Amino acid sequence: DQQVKQNSPSLSVQEGRISILNCDYTNSMFDYFLWYKKYPAEGPTFLISISSIKDKNEDGRFTVFLNKSAKHLSLHIVPSQPGDSAVYFCAATVSGSARQLTFGSGTQLTVLP
Amino acid sequence: ETGVTQTPRHLVMGMTNKKSLKCEQHLGHNAMYWYKQSAKKPLELMFVYSLEERVENNSVPSRFSPECPNSSHLFLHLHTLQPEDSALYLCASSQKIGQSDYNEQFFGPGTRLTVL
User: What SS3 state is found at B41?
Assistant: First the structure.
């Protein structure tokens, strides 16, 4: 049973518009969440993270929102650029848990010029 | 070299072969990881190594054998693999920060393994 789920395998967005990628989790013990981006033939690259003591974290064009009651997080990219086209993975962990991340299956984002 | 490097990038092997995957991190981190990514599936943690401990996913078959000779190098020894072991194998590293180590792991490019 997947504890971290990304229910949309793909998403297409027009350049300049907002991209919203969603992630749901089931384990209420998770208290730290991360987003990774992966280009073909490369390993995942850390993008942004959020602790459960916050409900929002922003870094440039990227904002992550956390709704603990709904066990849901989302990544907003504004404005979207063609270079953002990649697979986005969300991951979750319990702090102090021997550094084990649980990943979702990823969402392929395509930003159309 | 910078970041996390993995060799080889591609590997094709028969079920009776023995091979090893190598990972090296140049970030001064003190924890290293092996992940498996099969098609359309989430990354699956296989092993974690740090100075204090080794943690493994109990579902990993014994035909996968990790070795961590020091904090910068990690190997994954493969023997008598099955075709379903074909996948992308990713190495990662991170730095433990006290008791509350938040896991910003840095990944290598992966080794694409095909078992015939």
Answer: coil
pLDDT score, position B100: 54
Three-state DSSP string of chain A = CCCEECCCCEEEEECCCCEEEEEEECCCCCCEEEEEEECCCCCCEEEEEEECCCCEEEECCEEEEEECCCCEEEEEECCCCHHHCEEEEEEEECCCCCCCCEECCCEEEEEEC
Distance separating alpha carbons of residues B34 and A64, to the nearest angstrom:
27
Q: Which conformational region is residue A84 in: left (phi greater than 0), alpha (psi within -120 to 50 degrees), or beta? A: alpha
Please give the average per-residue pLDDT across B47-68, as a whole number.
83
Interface check B81 vs A, CB under 8 A: no
Q: A36: which chain B residues are within 8 Å (Cβ-Cβ)?
A: 107
Residue B100, chain A, CB below 8 Å: the answer is yes
A33 touches A55 (CB < 8 A): no
Spatial contact of B57 and B43, defined as CB atoms under 8 Å apart = no
Contact B42 A102 (CB under 8 A): yes
Q: Which residues of A touch B100 (CB under 8 A)?
A: 95-96
> Quick one: what percent of chain B has pLDDT higher than 90?
59
**Closest chain A residue by Cα to residue B34:** A100
